[in-house]
Amino acid sequence: MPDTGLLRDAALPNPLPAGTVAVIGLGYVGRPIALAAAAAGFAVSGFDLDPAAAAAAEAAWRGLGAPGRLSATADPARLPAAQTWLICVPTPLDAAGRPDLSLVEAALATCVARLVRGALVCLVSTCQPGATNGTCRRAIEAAGFAVGRDVFLCVSPERENPGATDGPRDVPRLLGATDEASLARGRAFWERVAGRVIPVASPEIAECAKLLENTYRLVNVALMDELHRGFAALGVPTRAVVEAAATKPFGFAPFWPGAGAGGHCIPVDPEFLQMELARVGAASSLLAAAAEANRARPAAVVEGVARALGGSLAGRRVLVMGVTYKPGVADLRGAAPLALLRLLAARGAEALWHDPLVAEGPGPLAPFVRAADPARCPGGPPDAVVLGTPQPGFDLAALPRLAAVAVDPFGLVPGGAAAGVRVV
Ligand SMILES: NC(=O)c1ccc[n+]([C@@H]2O[C@H](COP(=O)([O-])OP(=O)(O)OC[C@H]3O[C@@H](n4cnc5c(N)ncnc54)[C@H](O)[C@@H]3O)[C@@H](O)[C@H]2O)c1
C-alpha cells in the first residue's frame, strides 16, 4: 500500500459523516444500491444517461414510501457534487470480444468534473485488476487531486445475483482501497449501506476476487456441459451424479449443464481477467477453453436438435422453451436461448419461442414466432422442442408431449434419455 502519510485517518471511528451520495448508472446494480443508500439516511443523487432508468429509480424510491431523499436525473448539469461517488455503469465486451471500459471512463469524467476535496470515489462495476489503481486513479489525479489526501478511492465490486437475493445487504461486500484513509472511508460508507464488509489488502485483490468468482463458474459450467454429453453416452443421468457428489460435505460445489451460460457476467467477466493475464504473459488456457466451449454450446445444442430430426433443420419447426439468460428473470442479455433461435433460423428452421416471463415486443425476439401457449403453437405442433431456460412453473414432464422430438440440454426432463428425451 502506498505511504500516503494519512494512515492516522484509519483510526477515526467513522470519518464519513452522513452526507450526499451520487450513483452513476442506475441499472440492475446501481438502482438497488441507490435505494439502500437512501434508506440508510444518505441524500442520494442518481445519474443515468437513460431517462427511463433515472425515472425508474425515482419511482422505486417513491414506491418504498420510506423517509429520506433520492432524486435521479439524465441531465448531467443537474447532478450536484457529492461526498461519495459510486460508479455502477456496464463493463461489456466490445464487438471483438474485448473488455470495454469506455463507459467507466465516461462515468469517471462525469464524477471527476464535480469532485470536491474529501470526496470518496468507489468503483462498483466489474473491471480488470488495476482499474481502480490505474484508470480511476489517473482520472482523479488528472483533475489535480492527490488520491488518499484530497480524494479517496476504493473498489467494492458488485456480487449480487439479481432475482435470487433481496438487495445490497444479502451478499458480503469486498472492499479494497488505494490507501488506509480511503479504506476507512469506504468501510464507513458500505457498513451503513450494505451490512457486512470484508476489507482486503488491495484494490487488485477485490477486483481479482470478483473475476475469480465468475471464472470459477464459467469453467465449471463448461465442464458440466461437456460431461453431460459424456454421462448421457454412458447411460448415466447427470443430475443424479451431481446430486450424489454434492452430498460430500467438503471439496465439491454442484454445477449443472445447460444451453450455455449467458447474461452479462459469467461469459463476460472472465475476459477481463484473461486480458490482464495475457498482458503479463500468463493467459489461462483452461479459461480460454471454457470460454470457447461456452460460446460453442448453443451451436452444439442446435446440432443435437438437427441430429434428432435426421440431420437437416431446413423447413423444420422448432420450439424453444424459455428464452431468458437464467430462470426466474425476464432478462435477455446474452441469453443462450437467443443464440439457439438465431442458429435454428440460420439453418433454415422456423424458430418459435415460449416464455411466461417475456412479453412479446420489438427487440431480439422480434424475428421469431411467439407461442403464447406451447401446447397450441401457431401453425400446429412443432417438429422438435428444446429446453432453452427452465422457467419456474414449466411442466418439464410434459415437455416431450409438445413435439415428436424433445431435446434437453439441462438433464432436467424426468426420465431423460430413458424416456426418449434427447440429451445434448
Ligand atoms: N446485473 C448483475 O447481475 C451484476 C452483478 C454483478 C456485477 N455486475 C456489474 O455491475 C456493473 C453494472 O451492471 P448492471 O447490470 O447494473 O448494468 P445495467 O445495464 O443494468 O445498468 C447500467 C446503467 O448505466 C447507465 N450508463 C451507462 N453509461 C453511463 C454513463 N456514462 N453515465 C451514466 N449512466 C450510464 C446505463 O444507461 C444503464 O442504465 C457492470 O460492471 C456489471 O458487470 C452486474
Automatic annotation (TrEMBL):
Segments forming domain UDP-glucose/GDP-mannose dehydrogenase C-terminal: 319-415
Do the record's keywords include Oxidoreductase? yes
Q: What class of enzyme is it?
A: oxidoreductase
**Gene Ontology MF terms in the entry:** NAD binding; oxidoreductase activity, acting on the CH-CH group of donors, NAD or NADP as acceptor; UDP-N-acetylglucosamine 6-dehydrogenase activity
Gene3D superfamilies xref list = NAD(P)-binding Rossmann-like Domain (3.40.50.720)
What are the EC numbers? 1.1.1.136
Q: Which SUPFAM superfamilies match?
A: 6-phosphogluconate dehydrogenase C-terminal domain-like (SSF48179), NAD(P)-binding Rossmann-fold domains (SSF51735), UDP-glucose/GDP-mannose dehydrogenase C-terminal domain (SSF52413)
Stretches assigned to coiled coil: none
Q: Which GO terms describe its biological process?
A: polysaccharide biosynthetic process
Q: Which UniProt keywords apply?
A: NAD, Oxidoreductase
Membrane-spanning intervals of the chain: none
| Superkingdom field | Bacteria
Tell me which family the UniProt entry assigns to this protein: Belongs to the UDP-glucose/GDP-mannose dehydrogenase family.
Database matches in NCBIfam families:
NDP-sugDHase (TIGR03026)
Mind telling me what this protein is named?
A: UDP-N-acetyl-D-glucosamine dehydrogenase
Species of origin: Neoroseomonas alkaliterrae
